[in-house]
Amino acid sequence: MDARNIDYEYSRLILPVGPVHPSLKEPVNLSVTVVNEEIVDVNVKLNYIYRGIEYLAERRNIAQTIYLVERICGLCSQAHSLTFIQALEEIANIQPPERAEFIRVICAELERIHSHMLLLGVVAYDIGLDTLFMYAFKSRETVMDLLEKISGKRVHHDLNTIGGVRFDIDEDLRRLIIKELKYVKRNLDYISEVLEDATVENRLREVGVLPSKIAEELSVVGPTARGSGLTKDVRFNRSYSVYRDYKNSFKIVVLKDGDCLARVKIRVLEVYESISLIETLLDNMPDTPIRIGERILKIIKRIPVGEAISIVEAPRGQLAHYVYTNGGEGLKRLSVRTPTIPNITAVKYMLMHRQIADIPVVFSSIDPCISCANRVTVTDAAKNKTIIVNLENLRRRM
Amino acid sequence: MNITGKARLKSPWLFHLNTGSCNGCDIEILAALTPRYDAERFGCMLVASIRHADILLLTGPVTTQMHERLLRVYEQMPEPKAVVAVGSCAVSGGVYTGSPVVDGPADKFMPVDVYVAGCPPRPEAIVKGILEALRKFR
User: Given phi > 0 = left and psi -120 to 50 = alpha, else beta, which region is A166?
Assistant: First the structure.
């Protein structure tokens, strides 16, 4: 081995980022291989917060599972429970009252606003722009207040129930929501002005580029796909609930650049669209009861054996639940596919041949939600095959 | 009390560790540091390394994967140290009680000084929890 080769071997280094790391809010491990500061390989390890939610859901009754499913993720709690309830209502053949569907969608859109605001704050924090971080959180608190006024809770709303919702939006609250959203809109104008700034643009433009061809191959979803020029939105392509009738009150936002700046800007533009959709929905709310009269413990007794898949657009992209009931108040199988799983595979492509300093901002620009994305898979390296562990195997391993 | 002890009371540095929480408590801790609730008026600061921290904010029921890492983080913390368990999961296991991959709650295998209940607790409650933990340093 000559001297040049030795130099090369010593400069190649595996750098573990995580699971406990200052720039990550959640435990995830990125093993980054670097050669002279240049990233040549990325491996993502996700299973640090595997909590066995699907295992628990199969051992509880449906009324309890609604609250468990909501706690898969703190940021898309309304999206998760909406998906689960829609699947259950399809199996039980229950049609919720129209007003209930309006309230569900209004809350889901409010949640999209506060989740996108969080991403703006986190990206700003990662590029060292603490002022914008504080500013985004200030207007986020306004939305959190509205959600608290509707449901009584800030993060997990416990709003949906089979055949309707538990809390109503009355006239005073309706006026308050419209007034406060105007304030959020004003703040957002300022935030988009800050994002036009040359410093932000220099830091984010051309960083973590994901071309639309690669995005399509990796089947990324949500704002990450729309930032790469793909027109993917469940609310349009496979619309559900009240989105069927109100498709024209908001637009799909698509940007072509595919870099971090595009992914951040798309969030700002989507918040504008969500605000205009909420205003339209609040003006057109029908005057029906908010839930069917039957009690939930009676409803779950008459849910038959059946299976259903329900798909909604969560703040981070397409979220799917597969529900298989056992006919005896419980579930035989619950399977959750969250938007972070396809999106996180794109991180490897985005980081390739970039600098170490780009890791935090690229990673947070896809808005990862690690608590959603934990699976048990076993890879047999010798035979080169991957198996998903089933329940029997899992029990033996414990 | 010596001069470092007095300084510590005026500027408790925090470290936040997620051991399997659903993110709800984590964003509420972040919200507690931002202008509306402003924990920084008590001198609190979120630090990047556990070796600089005085108070460990713990969220989540401790999963099997994070169990060993939590103990390692706790051992690396300099004395005197205080631990605040934030959220129902960290206090009692919460909705994840009975899962075979959850080892917690954390007080089974390490000392916890302050419990902040709620799913998730309000930012005001988290600020109160931090102030309660400061009593240990008096």
Answer: alpha
Distance from the Cα of A49 to chain B's closest Cα (Å) equals 4
Residue from A20, A60, A158 whose CB has the most chain B CBs within 10 Å, to mutate? A20
| C-beta separation of A258 from A298 below 8 A | no
Domain membership flag for residue B5: no
Whether pLDDT at A76 is above 60: yes
Is the pLDDT at A396 greater than 50? The verdict is: no
What is Dmax (Cα atoms) for chain B? 47
pLDDT value, residue B49:
86
Extract the tokens encoding A272: 């504008």
* Residue-wise pLDDT tens digits, B34-72: 888 888 899 888 888 888 999 999 998 999 888 888 998
Is B62 contained in some domain?
yes
List the beta bridge partners of residue A312: A319
Domain that residue B27 falls in = 10-137
pTM metric for this prediction: 0.89
Whether residue B38 lies within 8 A of chain A, CB to CB, comes out as: no
Tokens representing A220 are 């990324």
Q: What integer pLDDT is reported at residue A395 of this predicted model? A: 46
Chain A residues whose CB is inside 8 A of the B61 CB are 51
* Structural domain total, chain B: 1
Rounded to an integer, the average pLDDT of A129-133 is: 88
Q: What is the CA radius of gyration of chain A?
A: 22
Pick the range with the lowest mean pLDDT from A99-108, A204-213, A348-357, A389-398: A389-398
The hierarchical CATH code for the domain A63-299+358-363 is: 1.10.645.10
Q: How many angstroms separate the CA atoms of A330 and A344, rounded?
A: 32
pLDDT at residue B7 is higher than 50: yes
Task: Tell me which residue in B17, B61, B100 faces A398 most closely, judged by beta carbons.
Answer: B100
Distance CA A35, CA A11 (A): 6
Residues A103 and A82: beta-carbon distance below 8 Å: no
The predicted pLDDT at position B1 comes to 76
Residue ranges per structural domain of chain A: 63-299+358-363
For A1, A8, A33, A319, B74, the CA distances from A4, given in Å and listed in that order, are 8, 6, 20, 50, 43
Closest-CA distance, B137 to chain A, in angstroms, reads 25
At B56, which CATH number? 3.40.50.12280
Alpha carbons B128 and B117: distance in angstroms, whole number: 12
Nearest to B81 by CA among B48, B50, B42, B104: B50
